[in-house]
Amino acid sequence: MKDYYHILGVDRNATDADIKKAYRRLAMQHHPDRNPGDKAAEEKFKEINEAYSCLCDAEKRANYERFGTSEGFGAEYGPFPSGFGDIFEDIFGDFFSAFTGRQRLRPAKGPDLRYDLEIDLRETVFGAEKIIDIPRYENCAGCGGSGSMPGKGPVTCTACKGTGQIRMQHGFFSVSRTCGRCGGTGRIITDPCRECSGTGKVRRLRKVSVKIPPGVDTGNRLKLSGEGEAGSHGGPNGDLYVIITVKPHPFFHREGIDLVCEVPISFPHAALGTEIDVPTIDGVSKLSIPPGTPSGKLFHIKGKGIPRLGARGRGDQIVKVYVDVPKKLTPRQRELLEEFASISGDGLSKGFMDRLKDLFGKEDAVHKKG
């Protein structure tokens, strides 16, 4: 059996005022808004409300004291009593005004904006500065964001007397509703600004400079503080988030902070070795190809890749060479290649043939044994 008096910390002779005072203190202490993510506080808060829903009602309190049990109360009223929001409004007043609409008068930050920006690979490597056009709502210059014509500010709403709330009393309970005449602001614009039609904001196309740091990649987000839409009631502007997309490059592709490209070489150059010119994002670089280079060999050109975002140093350019086999041969080329083939035999190295013989020799032995 739950002892509701013990839960609220009062004795059995406590007056209604004592119970109400104890409930207000404990509810404020254990309210979920003051203890986000705290399950113990949430359960304690429910228990406090269950106790108060019983003891604040004369008939329920009498039955509780007579029978000494709380059976039926939870099933009938749940963890929060009927009219709970109204009890809160009456007890806590402005502390819980967030539930009543009066928070609209407080300064509020404006909405954030998003802009998708496409850049090329060179801008990723070297950085850039872009000028973008952002459509956004700004405070009206004609009225300074008030919504009223200059010199004729808003007047106090006569329906709610400037509170933004219409309060109705039902015995112990006090019911508050947002004022329908002023929308909860407590003020009424009698002479709307002609430039913004009384809204206090106008839509403008604003040019914004965006600095692209070296090293950005697709999906990176740049935050421009205060470049979002205007706030309300003197609140600050929201922020602008620029989402980066890097366009594909016809020659390079990115792997982390490295740039990768493929470069063809001829068979004679692969066999004999040579020095070739390789395009990089910075310009042309020399690359030495040693004799006997196989197709698919990877070479690194240091410091020609992507900068480390927010740090020093760059990645490498990785060059993958492949042997370019000509589709058409001149008679002389064919003659020379045929002569090379006859000298080379079957074209397979002795080491490779030895490994094949060893492999298949073992397999033949296994089959014969079987």
Describe what you observe in this structure.
By secondary structure, the chain is an alpha+beta fold. It has four domains: 4-82, DnaJ domain (Helix Hairpins), CATH 1.10.287.110; 113-246, Chaperone, DNAj Protein, Chain A (Ribbon), CATH 2.10.230.10; 253-323, Urease metallochaperone UreE, N-terminal domain (HSP40/DNAj peptide-binding domain), CATH 2.60.260.20; 331-369, no CATH class. Helix content is 29%, strand content 25%. It contains ten helices and 15 strands. The chain has helices at residues 4-8, 16-30, 39-55, 58-67, 73-77, 84-92, 121-126, 267-272, 331-344, 350-369, and strands at residues 113-119, 128-139, 155-156, 165-170, 173-178, 187-188, 201-212, 221-224, 240-246, 253-255, 258-265, 274-280, 283-289, 298-301, 317-323. It has a four-stranded mixed beta sheet. The chain has a three-stranded mixed beta sheet with strand order 1-9-8. Helix 2 (16-30) packs antiparallel against helix 3 (39-55). The chain is elongated. Residues 69-104 have low confidence and may be disordered.
Layout of secondary structure:
Layout: H1 4-8, H2 16-30, H3 39-55, H4 58-67, H5 73-77, H6 84-92, E1 113-119, H7 121-126, E2 128-139, E3 155-156, E4 165-170, E5 173-178, E6 187-188, E7 201-212, E8 221-224, E9 240-246, E10 253-255, E11 258-265, H8 267-272, E12 274-280, E13 283-289, E14 298-301, E15 317-323, H9 331-344, H10 350-369
Parallel strand pairs: 1-9, 11-15
Antiparallel strand pairs: 2-7, 3-6, 4-5, 8-9, 10-11, 12-13, 14-15
Helix pairs in contact: 2-3
